[in-house]
TrEMBL record:
Gene that encodes the chain: Rag2
Keyword Metal-binding part of the UniProt annotation: yes
Amino acids binding Zn(2+) 1: C419, C423, H455, C458
Signal peptide range in chain numbering: none
Pfam family, one: RAG2_PHD
Source domain of life: Eukaryota
Annotated localization: Nucleus
Organism of this sequence: Zapornia atra
Gene Ontology MF terms: sequence-specific DNA binding; zinc ion binding
GO biological processes: chromatin organization; V(D)J recombination
Ligand binding (Zn(2+) 2): C446, H452, C478, H481
Protein name: V(D)J recombination-activating protein 2
Length: 527
Protein backbone atom coordinates (compact mmCIF):
# COMPACT_ATOMS: atom_id res chain seq x y z
CA UNK A 1 0.00 0.00 0.00
CA UNK A 2 1.52 3.28 -1.16
CA UNK A 3 0.59 6.73 0.18
CA UNK A 4 1.16 9.79 -2.00
CA UNK A 5 0.48 13.47 -1.25
CA UNK A 6 -1.70 15.47 -3.68
CA UNK A 7 -1.76 19.27 -3.86
CA UNK A 8 -5.00 21.09 -4.67
CA UNK A 9 -4.41 24.11 -6.92
CA UNK A 10 -6.50 27.29 -6.86
CA UNK A 11 -7.13 26.86 -3.11
CA UNK A 12 -10.75 26.16 -3.91
CA UNK A 13 -13.14 26.52 -0.99
CA UNK A 14 -15.60 24.28 -2.81
CA UNK A 15 -13.73 21.18 -1.66
CA UNK A 16 -15.41 20.97 1.71
CA UNK A 17 -16.75 17.99 3.68
CA UNK A 18 -20.00 16.70 2.29
CA UNK A 19 -19.54 16.60 -1.48
CA UNK A 20 -19.63 13.52 -3.68
CA UNK A 21 -17.85 12.21 -6.75
CA UNK A 22 -19.08 10.36 -9.83
CA UNK A 23 -16.87 8.30 -12.12
CA UNK A 24 -17.83 8.13 -15.80
CA UNK A 25 -15.41 6.16 -17.97
CA UNK A 26 -12.51 6.92 -15.66
CA UNK A 27 -13.24 10.65 -15.38
CA UNK A 28 -14.18 12.00 -11.97
CA UNK A 29 -16.92 14.61 -11.53
CA UNK A 30 -17.61 16.47 -8.32
CA UNK A 31 -20.88 17.92 -7.06
CA UNK A 32 -22.41 18.92 -3.74
CA UNK A 33 -20.43 22.06 -2.92
CA UNK A 34 -20.98 23.98 0.27
CA UNK A 35 -23.12 26.95 -0.76
CA UNK A 36 -25.12 27.66 -3.89
CA UNK A 37 -23.37 27.47 -7.29
CA UNK A 38 -21.86 30.62 -8.78
CA UNK A 39 -21.85 31.98 -12.30
CA UNK A 40 -18.66 30.16 -13.29
CA UNK A 41 -20.45 26.81 -12.96
CA UNK A 42 -24.22 27.15 -12.48
CA UNK A 43 -24.72 23.38 -12.55
CA UNK A 44 -22.47 22.88 -9.52
CA UNK A 45 -20.84 19.88 -11.23
CA UNK A 46 -17.12 19.93 -12.02
CA UNK A 47 -14.65 17.68 -13.75
CA UNK A 48 -11.74 16.96 -11.39
CA UNK A 49 -8.60 16.92 -13.48
CA UNK A 50 -5.54 15.50 -11.71
CA UNK A 51 -2.20 15.87 -13.41
CA UNK A 52 1.25 15.72 -11.89
CA UNK A 53 -0.25 15.37 -8.40
CA UNK A 54 -2.31 18.56 -8.82
CA UNK A 55 -6.07 18.89 -8.83
CA UNK A 56 -7.95 21.28 -11.12
CA UNK A 57 -11.67 21.89 -11.55
CA UNK A 58 -13.45 22.32 -14.89
CA UNK A 59 -17.17 23.17 -15.12
CA UNK A 60 -19.57 20.56 -16.53
CA UNK A 61 -22.92 21.22 -18.21
CA UNK A 62 -26.47 19.86 -18.20
CA UNK A 63 -28.62 19.16 -21.24
CA UNK A 64 -31.67 21.34 -21.92
CA UNK A 65 -34.08 18.60 -20.85
CA UNK A 66 -32.40 18.20 -17.44
CA UNK A 67 -33.98 19.10 -14.14
CA UNK A 68 -32.26 21.23 -11.51
CA UNK A 69 -29.84 19.37 -9.25
CA UNK A 70 -29.21 21.24 -5.98
CA UNK A 71 -25.75 20.96 -4.42
CA UNK A 72 -26.59 18.11 -2.05
CA UNK A 73 -24.13 17.24 0.67
CA UNK A 74 -23.89 13.83 2.35
CA UNK A 75 -26.30 12.06 -0.05
CA UNK A 76 -26.41 8.34 -0.77
CA UNK A 77 -24.90 7.55 -4.16
CA UNK A 78 -24.33 4.42 -6.24
CA UNK A 79 -24.12 3.26 -9.84
CA UNK A 80 -27.13 1.74 -11.59
CA UNK A 81 -27.02 -0.71 -14.49
CA UNK A 82 -29.98 -2.18 -16.33
CA UNK A 83 -28.48 -5.62 -15.68
CA UNK A 84 -25.55 -6.94 -13.70
CA UNK A 85 -23.57 -7.59 -16.92
CA UNK A 86 -24.31 -4.26 -18.61
CA UNK A 87 -21.43 -1.93 -19.44
CA UNK A 88 -23.55 1.23 -19.48
CA UNK A 89 -24.43 2.75 -16.14
CA UNK A 90 -25.93 5.79 -14.49
CA UNK A 91 -25.61 7.31 -11.04
CA UNK A 92 -28.41 7.31 -8.49
CA UNK A 93 -28.44 10.13 -5.93
CA UNK A 94 -30.83 10.12 -2.99
CA UNK A 95 -31.27 12.51 -0.07
CA UNK A 96 -28.63 14.85 1.29
CA UNK A 97 -28.45 18.39 2.66
CA UNK A 98 -29.05 21.56 0.67
CA UNK A 99 -27.03 24.74 1.34
CA UNK A 100 -29.96 25.91 3.49
CA UNK A 101 -29.54 22.76 5.63
CA UNK A 102 -32.86 21.42 4.39
CA UNK A 103 -32.96 17.67 3.82
CA UNK A 104 -33.97 16.20 0.49
CA UNK A 105 -36.15 13.14 -0.11
CA UNK A 106 -35.76 13.19 -3.89
CA UNK A 107 -34.02 10.69 -6.16
CA UNK A 108 -32.04 11.89 -9.18
CA UNK A 109 -30.60 9.88 -12.05
CA UNK A 110 -27.43 11.26 -13.67
CA UNK A 111 -26.30 9.99 -17.05
CA UNK A 112 -23.52 11.07 -19.41
CA UNK A 113 -24.81 12.58 -22.67
CA UNK A 114 -21.62 13.66 -24.42
CA UNK A 115 -18.00 14.35 -23.64
CA UNK A 116 -15.24 16.10 -25.55
CA UNK A 117 -11.86 17.38 -24.50
CA UNK A 118 -13.40 20.76 -23.64
CA UNK A 119 -17.01 20.08 -22.63
CA UNK A 120 -18.92 17.40 -20.74
CA UNK A 121 -22.73 17.31 -20.79
CA UNK A 122 -24.95 15.36 -18.40
CA UNK A 123 -28.64 14.67 -18.19
CA UNK A 124 -30.27 14.90 -14.77
CA UNK A 125 -33.74 13.41 -14.26
CA UNK A 126 -35.79 13.43 -11.07
CA UNK A 127 -37.68 10.19 -10.48
CA UNK A 128 -41.28 10.29 -9.29
CA UNK A 129 -41.83 7.91 -6.38
CA UNK A 130 -44.95 6.47 -4.83
CA UNK A 131 -45.82 4.18 -1.96
CA UNK A 132 -43.61 4.10 1.14
CA UNK A 133 -41.34 6.94 0.07
CA UNK A 134 -38.25 7.20 2.34
CA UNK A 135 -38.21 10.34 4.44
CA UNK A 136 -35.63 13.04 3.82
CA UNK A 137 -32.27 11.99 5.25
CA UNK A 138 -28.50 12.11 4.94
CA UNK A 139 -25.59 9.86 5.93
CA UNK A 140 -27.34 6.75 4.57
CA UNK A 141 -26.51 4.26 1.82
CA UNK A 142 -28.12 3.07 -1.40
CA UNK A 143 -27.22 -0.07 -3.35
CA UNK A 144 -28.58 -1.94 -6.37
CA UNK A 145 -29.39 -5.66 -6.13
CA UNK A 146 -30.07 -8.05 -9.02
CA UNK A 147 -32.31 -11.10 -8.74
CA UNK A 148 -34.17 -13.21 -11.30
CA UNK A 149 -33.38 -10.76 -14.09
CA UNK A 150 -34.73 -7.78 -12.13
CA UNK A 151 -33.05 -4.97 -10.23
CA UNK A 152 -34.05 -2.79 -7.30
CA UNK A 153 -32.33 -0.26 -5.07
CA UNK A 154 -31.94 -0.80 -1.34
CA UNK A 155 -31.93 2.25 0.95
CA UNK A 156 -30.97 1.95 4.60
CA UNK A 157 -29.94 4.10 7.56
CA UNK A 158 -29.18 7.79 7.83
CA UNK A 159 -30.16 10.74 9.97
CA UNK A 160 -33.01 13.21 9.78
CA UNK A 161 -34.30 16.19 11.73
CA UNK A 162 -36.50 15.70 14.76
CA UNK A 163 -40.18 15.55 13.72
CA UNK A 164 -41.98 18.89 13.99
CA UNK A 165 -44.32 17.63 16.70
CA UNK A 166 -41.34 16.74 18.92
CA UNK A 167 -39.21 19.84 18.40
CA UNK A 168 -38.44 22.37 21.11
CA UNK A 169 -36.91 25.83 20.89
CA UNK A 170 -33.60 24.62 22.31
CA UNK A 171 -33.33 21.65 19.95
CA UNK A 172 -35.17 22.87 16.87
CA UNK A 173 -32.63 21.59 14.33
CA UNK A 174 -31.36 18.56 16.24
CA UNK A 175 -30.95 15.34 14.28
CA UNK A 176 -32.00 11.79 15.15
CA UNK A 177 -31.46 8.33 13.73
CA UNK A 178 -33.89 7.30 11.03
CA UNK A 179 -35.93 4.21 11.81
CA UNK A 180 -34.07 0.99 10.93
CA UNK A 181 -36.36 0.22 7.99
CA UNK A 182 -35.19 -1.21 4.69
CA UNK A 183 -36.63 0.43 1.56
CA UNK A 184 -36.85 -1.20 -1.84
CA UNK A 185 -37.28 1.19 -4.79
CA UNK A 186 -38.32 -0.01 -8.23
CA UNK A 187 -36.99 2.53 -10.74
CA UNK A 188 -39.05 1.12 -13.59
CA UNK A 189 -42.39 1.89 -11.93
CA UNK A 190 -41.30 4.30 -9.16
CA UNK A 191 -42.76 2.13 -6.40
CA UNK A 192 -41.29 2.15 -2.88
CA UNK A 193 -41.84 -0.53 -0.23
CA UNK A 194 -40.55 -0.47 3.34
CA UNK A 195 -39.65 -3.52 5.43
CA UNK A 196 -39.26 -3.76 9.20
CA UNK A 197 -36.91 -6.60 10.08
CA UNK A 198 -36.55 -7.87 13.68
CA UNK A 199 -32.78 -8.20 13.35
CA UNK A 200 -32.41 -4.44 12.79
CA UNK A 201 -33.18 -2.78 16.12
CA UNK A 202 -31.16 0.47 16.06
CA UNK A 203 -30.81 3.14 13.44
CA UNK A 204 -27.38 3.50 11.85
CA UNK A 205 -25.66 6.21 9.85
CA UNK A 206 -22.30 6.60 8.12
CA UNK A 207 -21.91 2.87 7.79
CA UNK A 208 -20.43 0.85 4.93
CA UNK A 209 -22.58 -1.19 2.57
CA UNK A 210 -21.31 -3.49 -0.16
CA UNK A 211 -23.63 -5.17 -2.69
CA UNK A 212 -23.00 -8.31 -4.70
CA UNK A 213 -25.76 -9.81 -6.84
CA UNK A 214 -28.84 -10.14 -4.58
CA UNK A 215 -27.05 -9.51 -1.28
CA UNK A 216 -26.11 -6.37 0.64
CA UNK A 217 -23.62 -6.47 3.52
CA UNK A 218 -23.87 -3.66 6.11
CA UNK A 219 -20.82 -3.08 8.28
CA UNK A 220 -20.20 -0.66 11.16
CA UNK A 221 -22.01 2.64 11.53
CA UNK A 222 -22.82 5.06 14.34
CA UNK A 223 -26.02 5.18 16.41
CA UNK A 224 -26.93 8.57 17.85
CA UNK A 225 -29.50 7.14 20.21
CA UNK A 226 -27.02 4.84 21.95
CA UNK A 227 -23.84 6.72 20.98
CA UNK A 228 -22.14 3.49 19.96
CA UNK A 229 -20.45 2.04 16.91
CA UNK A 230 -22.05 -1.32 16.50
CA UNK A 231 -19.71 -4.26 15.77
CA UNK A 232 -22.61 -6.08 14.10
CA UNK A 233 -22.38 -7.33 10.55
CA UNK A 234 -25.71 -7.58 8.72
CA UNK A 235 -26.53 -9.55 5.60
CA UNK A 236 -29.59 -8.47 3.60
CA UNK A 237 -30.79 -10.88 0.94
CA UNK A 238 -33.39 -9.70 -1.59
CA UNK A 239 -35.44 -12.08 -3.71
CA UNK A 240 -37.36 -10.59 -6.66
CA UNK A 241 -39.92 -13.12 -7.89
CA UNK A 242 -42.89 -12.30 -10.11
CA UNK A 243 -44.93 -11.29 -7.07
CA UNK A 244 -43.91 -9.27 -4.05
CA UNK A 245 -40.20 -9.02 -3.17
CA UNK A 246 -38.88 -10.90 -0.16
CA UNK A 247 -36.24 -9.41 2.14
CA UNK A 248 -34.44 -11.38 4.84
CA UNK A 249 -31.77 -10.28 7.29
CA UNK A 250 -29.22 -12.28 9.24
CA UNK A 251 -26.52 -11.23 11.72
CA UNK A 252 -23.07 -12.57 10.93
CA UNK A 253 -20.11 -12.88 13.30
CA UNK A 254 -16.81 -11.09 12.83
CA UNK A 255 -18.00 -7.50 12.44
CA UNK A 256 -15.95 -4.36 13.11
CA UNK A 257 -16.84 -1.46 15.38
CA UNK A 258 -16.15 1.45 13.04
CA UNK A 259 -17.86 4.43 11.46
CA UNK A 260 -16.92 6.60 8.49
CA UNK A 261 -14.85 3.80 6.97
CA UNK A 262 -13.92 3.70 3.28
CA UNK A 263 -14.07 0.66 1.00
CA UNK A 264 -12.31 0.21 -2.33
CA UNK A 265 -12.35 -2.82 -4.62
CA UNK A 266 -9.06 -4.48 -5.50
CA UNK A 267 -10.29 -7.69 -7.17
CA UNK A 268 -13.54 -9.24 -8.34
CA UNK A 269 -14.42 -10.47 -4.86
CA UNK A 270 -11.88 -8.54 -2.75
CA UNK A 271 -12.24 -5.16 -1.07
CA UNK A 272 -10.05 -3.09 1.26
CA UNK A 273 -11.46 -1.28 4.29
CA UNK A 274 -9.56 1.91 5.21
CA UNK A 275 -9.94 4.72 7.74
CA UNK A 276 -12.86 5.66 9.91
CA UNK A 277 -13.26 6.04 13.66
CA UNK A 278 -13.32 3.39 16.36
CA UNK A 279 -14.38 5.86 19.06
CA UNK A 280 -15.34 9.51 19.39
CA UNK A 281 -11.75 10.60 19.91
CA UNK A 282 -9.72 7.94 18.12
CA UNK A 283 -9.19 7.30 14.43
CA UNK A 284 -8.91 3.78 13.12
CA UNK A 285 -5.51 3.36 11.47
CA UNK A 286 -5.90 -0.37 10.85
CA UNK A 287 -6.82 -1.72 7.40
CA UNK A 288 -8.77 -4.86 6.59
CA UNK A 289 -9.45 -7.03 3.56
CA UNK A 290 -13.04 -8.05 2.79
CA UNK A 291 -13.51 -11.19 0.71
CA UNK A 292 -17.05 -11.72 -0.64
CA UNK A 293 -18.50 -14.97 -1.85
CA UNK A 294 -22.04 -15.60 -2.97
CA UNK A 295 -23.19 -16.51 0.54
CA UNK A 296 -20.56 -15.23 2.95
CA UNK A 297 -18.07 -12.48 3.74
CA UNK A 298 -14.64 -12.85 5.33
CA UNK A 299 -12.86 -9.97 7.09
CA UNK A 300 -9.12 -10.23 7.81
CA UNK A 301 -6.59 -7.64 8.95
CA UNK A 302 -3.93 -6.55 6.49
CA UNK A 303 -0.73 -4.48 6.60
CA UNK A 304 -1.37 -0.76 7.00
CA UNK A 305 0.46 1.91 4.98
CA UNK A 306 3.20 4.08 6.44
CA UNK A 307 0.98 6.89 7.71
CA UNK A 308 2.59 10.33 7.79
CA UNK A 309 2.93 12.18 11.12
CA UNK A 310 0.26 14.68 9.98
CA UNK A 311 -2.25 11.87 9.48
CA UNK A 312 -1.36 10.15 12.73
CA UNK A 313 -1.74 13.27 14.87
CA UNK A 314 -4.73 14.94 13.21
CA UNK A 315 -8.06 14.70 15.03
CA UNK A 316 -10.22 14.26 11.94
CA UNK A 317 -9.86 12.71 8.51
CA UNK A 318 -12.16 11.99 5.62
CA UNK A 319 -12.24 10.59 2.12
CA UNK A 320 -13.73 7.85 -0.03
CA UNK A 321 -13.15 5.29 -2.75
CA UNK A 322 -11.55 6.47 -5.99
CA UNK A 323 -12.04 3.16 -7.77
CA UNK A 324 -9.50 0.58 -8.94
CA UNK A 325 -8.09 0.04 -5.47
CA UNK A 326 -7.30 3.69 -4.67
CA UNK A 327 -8.58 5.88 -1.87
CA UNK A 328 -8.44 9.66 -1.58
CA UNK A 329 -7.86 10.80 2.00
CA UNK A 330 -8.07 14.34 3.38
CA UNK A 331 -7.08 15.95 6.64
CA UNK A 332 -7.68 19.53 7.86
CA UNK A 333 -4.92 22.05 7.29
CA UNK A 334 -3.02 23.75 10.09
CA UNK A 335 -4.89 26.47 11.98
CA UNK A 336 -2.08 28.92 11.27
CA UNK A 337 -2.75 28.86 7.55
CA UNK A 338 -4.06 31.98 5.91
CA UNK A 339 -6.89 29.96 4.41
CA UNK A 340 -8.74 28.34 7.27
CA UNK A 341 -10.71 25.90 5.11
CA UNK A 342 -7.67 24.43 3.31
CA UNK A 343 -7.20 20.67 3.50
CA UNK A 344 -4.33 18.32 2.76
CA UNK A 345 -5.02 15.35 0.48
CA UNK A 346 -3.38 11.98 -0.06
CA UNK A 347 -3.94 9.13 -2.49
CA UNK A 348 -3.67 5.65 -0.98
CA UNK A 349 -3.06 2.91 -3.53
CA UNK A 350 -4.02 -0.50 -2.20
CA UNK A 351 -2.62 -2.56 -5.09
CA UNK A 352 0.35 -2.49 -7.44
CA UNK A 353 0.74 -0.34 -10.52
CA UNK A 354 0.29 -3.31 -12.88
CA UNK A 355 -3.01 -4.19 -11.26
CA UNK A 356 -4.21 -0.61 -11.74
CA UNK A 357 -4.31 -1.25 -15.48
CA UNK A 358 -6.83 -4.03 -15.14
CA UNK A 359 -10.34 -3.70 -16.45
CA UNK A 360 -12.63 -1.53 -14.31
CA UNK A 361 -14.43 -3.60 -11.75
CA UNK A 362 -18.20 -3.59 -11.80
CA UNK A 363 -19.21 -4.70 -8.32
CA UNK A 364 -20.95 -1.98 -6.37
CA UNK A 365 -19.67 -0.24 -3.31
CA UNK A 366 -21.58 2.41 -1.42
CA UNK A 367 -19.55 3.90 1.41
CA UNK A 368 -20.68 6.82 3.52
CA UNK A 369 -18.19 8.83 5.51
CA UNK A 370 -19.45 11.03 8.22
CA UNK A 371 -19.14 13.89 10.63
CA UNK A 372 -20.40 17.37 11.06
CA UNK A 373 -18.47 20.25 9.53
CA UNK A 374 -15.46 21.34 11.60
CA UNK A 375 -17.28 24.53 12.48
CA UNK A 376 -20.47 22.75 13.46
CA UNK A 377 -19.13 20.30 16.01
CA UNK A 378 -16.09 19.29 18.00
CA UNK A 379 -13.28 17.63 16.05
CA UNK A 380 -13.69 14.40 18.00
CA UNK A 381 -17.28 13.77 16.99
CA UNK A 382 -18.15 11.33 14.25
CA UNK A 383 -17.50 13.50 11.23
CA UNK A 384 -19.65 13.79 8.11
CA UNK A 385 -16.79 13.82 5.65
CA UNK A 386 -17.30 14.36 1.97
CA UNK A 387 -17.36 11.28 -0.24
CA UNK A 388 -14.84 10.48 -2.96
CA UNK A 389 -16.22 7.59 -4.96
CA UNK A 390 -14.33 7.55 -8.24
CA UNK A 391 -10.89 7.57 -9.77
CA UNK A 392 -9.34 10.79 -10.98
CA UNK A 393 -7.90 11.00 -14.49
CA UNK A 394 -5.42 13.23 -16.28
CA UNK A 395 -6.01 15.44 -19.30
CA UNK A 396 -3.61 17.12 -21.67
CA UNK A 397 -5.94 20.04 -22.25
CA UNK A 398 -5.82 22.82 -19.67
CA UNK A 399 -8.63 24.94 -21.09
CA UNK A 400 -11.80 25.75 -19.19
CA UNK A 401 -10.11 25.29 -15.83
CA UNK A 402 -12.14 26.68 -12.97
CA UNK A 403 -10.12 29.23 -11.02
CA UNK A 404 -11.74 30.40 -7.84
CA UNK A 405 -9.47 33.44 -7.70
CA UNK A 406 -11.21 34.70 -10.86
CA UNK A 407 -14.64 34.24 -9.32
CA UNK A 408 -16.33 37.41 -8.13
CA UNK A 409 -17.14 37.40 -4.43
CA UNK A 410 -20.90 37.52 -4.70
CA UNK A 411 -21.32 37.63 -0.94
CA UNK A 412 -20.29 41.31 -1.09
CA UNK A 413 -20.62 42.60 -4.64
CA UNK A 414 -23.06 40.37 -6.48
CA UNK A 415 -26.42 38.87 -5.78
CA UNK A 416 -25.86 38.61 -2.03
CA UNK A 417 -25.52 42.32 -1.22
CA UNK A 418 -27.58 44.20 1.35
CA UNK A 419 -29.70 46.08 -1.15
CA UNK A 420 -31.73 48.16 1.31
CA UNK A 421 -32.41 48.72 4.99
CA UNK A 422 -35.14 46.08 4.89
CA UNK A 423 -33.11 43.52 2.92
CA UNK A 424 -33.47 39.98 4.27
CA UNK A 425 -31.62 38.02 1.57
CA UNK A 426 -28.96 35.74 3.10
CA UNK A 427 -26.76 33.44 1.01
CA UNK A 428 -27.00 30.74 3.69
CA UNK A 429 -30.80 30.74 4.06
CA UNK A 430 -32.14 31.96 0.71
CA UNK A 431 -34.54 29.78 -1.25
CA UNK A 432 -36.04 30.56 -4.68
CA UNK A 433 -39.07 32.87 -4.44
CA UNK A 434 -39.98 33.44 -8.09
CA UNK A 435 -40.45 30.69 -10.65
CA UNK A 436 -37.71 32.27 -12.79
CA UNK A 437 -35.09 31.92 -10.04
CA UNK A 438 -32.69 29.00 -10.03
CA UNK A 439 -29.66 29.48 -7.79
CA UNK A 440 -29.58 33.22 -7.16
CA UNK A 441 -32.17 35.87 -6.33
CA UNK A 442 -33.84 38.02 -9.00
CA UNK A 443 -32.63 41.64 -9.05
CA UNK A 444 -33.80 44.86 -10.69
CA UNK A 445 -31.95 48.12 -11.36
CA UNK A 446 -33.03 51.25 -9.49
CA UNK A 447 -32.53 54.30 -11.74
CA UNK A 448 -31.80 56.73 -8.91
CA UNK A 449 -28.51 58.61 -9.44
CA UNK A 450 -25.95 56.36 -11.11
CA UNK A 451 -28.20 53.37 -10.47
CA UNK A 452 -27.93 50.43 -8.07
CA UNK A 453 -29.32 46.89 -7.94
CA UNK A 454 -31.95 45.71 -5.47
CA UNK A 455 -33.60 42.35 -4.82
CA UNK A 456 -37.04 42.08 -6.36
CA UNK A 457 -38.24 40.11 -3.34
CA UNK A 458 -37.15 42.87 -0.94
CA UNK A 459 -39.13 45.38 -3.02
CA UNK A 460 -42.30 43.26 -2.63
CA UNK A 461 -42.67 42.95 -6.40
CA UNK A 462 -45.10 40.37 -7.66
CA UNK A 463 -43.87 37.98 -10.31
CA UNK A 464 -46.21 39.55 -12.87
CA UNK A 465 -44.89 43.04 -12.15
CA UNK A 466 -41.29 41.80 -12.22
CA UNK A 467 -41.77 40.27 -15.66
CA UNK A 468 -43.52 43.41 -16.90
CA UNK A 469 -40.69 45.66 -15.70
CA UNK A 470 -38.06 43.40 -17.22
CA UNK A 471 -39.77 43.54 -20.61
CA UNK A 472 -40.84 47.19 -20.67
CA UNK A 473 -38.41 50.02 -21.43
CA UNK A 474 -39.19 52.07 -18.33
CA UNK A 475 -37.23 53.38 -15.38
CA UNK A 476 -37.75 51.76 -12.00
CA UNK A 477 -37.14 53.32 -8.59
CA UNK A 478 -36.80 51.23 -5.43
CA UNK A 479 -38.91 51.72 -2.33
CA UNK A 480 -36.32 54.03 -0.73
CA UNK A 481 -35.98 56.33 -3.74
CA UNK A 482 -39.46 56.46 -5.20
CA UNK A 483 -40.63 59.29 -2.88
CA UNK A 484 -37.33 61.15 -3.22
CA UNK A 485 -37.58 60.92 -6.98
CA UNK A 486 -41.06 62.45 -6.89
CA UNK A 487 -39.97 65.35 -4.61
CA UNK A 488 -36.97 66.31 -6.71
CA UNK A 489 -38.66 65.94 -10.04
CA UNK A 490 -39.00 69.22 -12.04
CA UNK A 491 -42.64 69.98 -12.83
CA UNK A 492 -43.48 69.31 -16.40
CA UNK A 493 -43.60 72.44 -18.58
CA UNK A 494 -47.15 73.33 -19.57
CA UNK A 495 -47.40 74.03 -23.27
CA UNK A 496 -49.99 76.74 -24.03
CA UNK A 497 -51.83 76.30 -27.25
CA UNK A 498 -51.80 79.33 -29.57
CA UNK A 499 -55.32 80.34 -30.47
CA UNK A 500 -55.91 80.90 -34.12
CA UNK A 501 -58.45 83.64 -35.13
CA UNK A 502 -61.67 82.25 -36.34
CA UNK A 503 -62.61 83.00 -39.92
CA UNK A 504 -66.01 84.58 -40.58
CA UNK A 505 -68.61 82.36 -42.07
CA UNK A 506 -69.47 84.93 -44.87
CA UNK A 507 -66.73 87.16 -46.05
CA UNK A 508 -67.65 90.11 -48.30
CA UNK A 509 -64.88 91.88 -50.17
CA UNK A 510 -65.26 95.74 -50.52
CA UNK A 511 -64.86 97.15 -54.05
CA UNK A 512 -61.49 98.57 -54.83
CA UNK A 513 -61.57 102.36 -55.40
CA UNK A 514 -59.60 103.84 -58.31
CA UNK A 515 -58.02 107.34 -58.34
CA UNK A 516 -60.72 109.04 -60.48
CA UNK A 517 -63.37 107.64 -58.21
CA UNK A 518 -61.57 109.00 -55.10
CA UNK A 519 -61.44 112.54 -56.61
CA UNK A 520 -65.13 112.45 -57.51
CA UNK A 521 -65.96 111.35 -53.97
CA UNK A 522 -63.93 114.17 -52.35
CA UNK A 523 -65.40 116.82 -54.67
CA UNK A 524 -68.92 115.85 -53.67
CA UNK A 525 -67.95 115.83 -50.01
CA UNK A 526 -66.87 119.51 -49.98
CA UNK A 527 -69.64 120.97 -52.20
Amino acid sequence: MALQAVSVVNNSSLLQPGFSLMNFDGDVFFFGQKGWPKRSCPTGVFLLDTKQNELKMKPAFFSKDSCYLPPLRYPALCTYRSSADSDEYQYIIHGGKTPNNDLSDKIYVISLVSKTSKKTTFQCVEKDLGGDVPEARYGHTINIVYSRGKSMSVIFGGRSYTPLAQRTTEKWNSVVDCLPSVFLVDFEFGCCTSYILPELQDGLSFHVSVARNDTVYILGGHSLQNNIRSPSLYKLKVDLPLGSPAVTCSILPGGISVSSAIVTQTAETEFVLVGGYQSDNQKRLVCNTLVLDDNKIEIVERASPDWTPDIKHCKMWFGCDMGKGSVLLGIPGANKQLISDANYFYILRCKGAEEDKEEELTAQVCSQTSSEDPGDSTPFEDSEEFCFSAEANSFDDDTDTYNEDDEEDESETGYWITCSASCNIDINTWVPFYSTELNKPAMILCSNGTGHWVHAQCMDLSETMLLRLSQANVKYFCNEHIDLNKGLQTPKKVVHLKKQPMKPLHKKTAPKLTTPMKKSFLRRLFE
